[in-house]
């Protein structure tokens, strides 16, 4: 387990990580845009996050510690946090200097909001021809639904994943379930990262020297996850149905209850692995059964195969079954809780569990920075957790952008910041 100490409001931008030197302006709120810029900041980008003077609503969401949201600590780590009333005419000089400073702007307002502020892509390019604008929205910047309101959950529903996250209708009469996280926001944020880095490559490496407008929709991020589901429909007219815990294209690959009531995921997907699994279970008859020789064969006899594995798993405690399965070269794992993750030696050895001293919420844990890079100096890091409201106002407006302290004091009195 690694330990990270907090940085104060005067901390400069991160100087480690492969994206060091990349300057990012975040005009975002809630999940998708902040998650995108968090990934960029984790890898060394200098991210300046703009919030309203009263702070972003995410500061009040979810689990609280010492009166502060714990998700804020994570999603806004490594960022310099400033306040600015984007609607106020007096904020215009600060906005323009921030845009001229930035390489990239990331936003997730409803389509048209930036244009109403006079900050559409054409406006930004007049200020900074090299600017890259990444726009995350529910339905994208074009199309008949572009003005609809949306959140990640709506993107999951329209994108097709919510229909699949449940058990077959003949087994239960319950609605499909969410994954327990804001999956629609999170996956779209990762596509936004890919879009930003693609545009940076084109501008700076391919050498066009000009920026791009990158358009990412929540439902499209989710829809892109559906693997072969669309080709299945396009070629066969088939509509994949909810499968519960089973994988529809491979047997065995399911979840089984152990003797101590825990759940084990066992994936004996390939033919050689299936033979090893049968041997481990003491069922050589299944290994040699011609009806079960290939995955196509086993798909026809799913209930029989899964029933045998369930019977075997029910004879052993989860940890012992997991140990035997992995020793035999069979992919398997207990279904981890977050407590299991935090205690696991492999998570710790890979620096995925980081102790963070957060002055707002107290000592806490953050997930580590991924992906990993080979040299420590090139890796990203957790330099500081999500900062207090306006923590970096003086540093950014005075030291970085060149406004006077009198300017900043006036803005404070007029609640521009």
TrEMBL record:
It comes from the Bacteria. Signal peptide: none annotated. It holds the Pfam family CoA_transf_3. InterPro entries: CoA-transferase_III_domain (IPR050483), CoA-Trfase_fam_III (IPR003673), CoA-Trfase_III_dom3_sf (IPR044855), CoA-Trfase_III_dom_1_sf (IPR023606). Keywords: Transferase. This is Succinyl-CoA--L-malate CoA-transferase beta subunit. It comes from Methylobacterium crusticola.
């Amino acid at each position: 387990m690694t330990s990270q100490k907090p940085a104060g409001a005067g901390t400069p931008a991160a100087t480690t990580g492969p994206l060091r030197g990349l300057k990012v302006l975040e005009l975002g709120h809630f999940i998708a845009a902040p998650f995108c810029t968090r990934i960029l900041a984790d890898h060394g980008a200098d991210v300046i996050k703009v919030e309203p003077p009263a702070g972003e609503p995410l500061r009040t969401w979810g689990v609280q510690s010492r009166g502060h949201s714990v998700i804020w600590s994570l999603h806004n780590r490594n960022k310099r946090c400033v306040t600015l009333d984007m609607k106020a005419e007096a904020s215009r000089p600060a906005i323009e200097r921030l845009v001229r400073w930035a390489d990239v702007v990331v936003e997730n307002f409803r389509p048209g909001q930036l244009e109403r502020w006079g900050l559409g892509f054409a406006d930004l390019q007049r200020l900074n021809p090299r600017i890259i604008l990444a726009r995350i929205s529910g339905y994208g910047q074009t199309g008949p639904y572009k003005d609809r309101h949306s959140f990640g959950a709506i993107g999951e529903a329209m994108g097709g994943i919510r229909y699949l996250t449940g058990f077959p209708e003949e087994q239960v009469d319950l609605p499909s379930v969410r994954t327990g996280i804001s999956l629609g926001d999170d996956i779209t944020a990762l596509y936004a990262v890919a879009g930003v880095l693609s545009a940076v490559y084109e501008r700076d490496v391919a050498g066009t020297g000009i920026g791009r407008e990158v358009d990412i929709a929540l439902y499209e991020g989710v829809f892109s996850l559906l693997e072969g589901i669309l080709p299945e429909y396009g070629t066969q007219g088939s509509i994949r149905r909810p499968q519960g815990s089973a994988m529809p294209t491979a047997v065995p690959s399911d979840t089984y209850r152990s003797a101590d009531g825990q759940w084990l995921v066992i994936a004996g997907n390939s033919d050689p692995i299936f033979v090893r699994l049968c041997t481990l279970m003491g069922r050589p008859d299944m290994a040699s059964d011609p009806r079960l020789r290939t995955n196509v064969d086993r798909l026809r006899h799913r209930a029989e195969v899964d029933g045998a594995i369930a019977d075997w798993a029910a004879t052993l405690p989860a940890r012992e079954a997991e140990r035997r399965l992995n020793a035999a070269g069979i992919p398997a794992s207990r279904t981890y809780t977050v407590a299991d993750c935090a205690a696991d030696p492999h998570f710790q050895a890979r620096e995925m569990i980081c102790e963070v001293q957060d002055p707002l919420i107290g000592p806490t844990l953050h997930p580590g920075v991924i992906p990993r890079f080979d040299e420590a100096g090139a890796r990203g890091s957790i330099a500081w957790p999500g900062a207090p409201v306006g923590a970096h106002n003086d540093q950014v407006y005075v030291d970085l952008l060149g406004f006077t302290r009198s300017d900043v004091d006036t803005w404070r009195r007029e609640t521009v910041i």
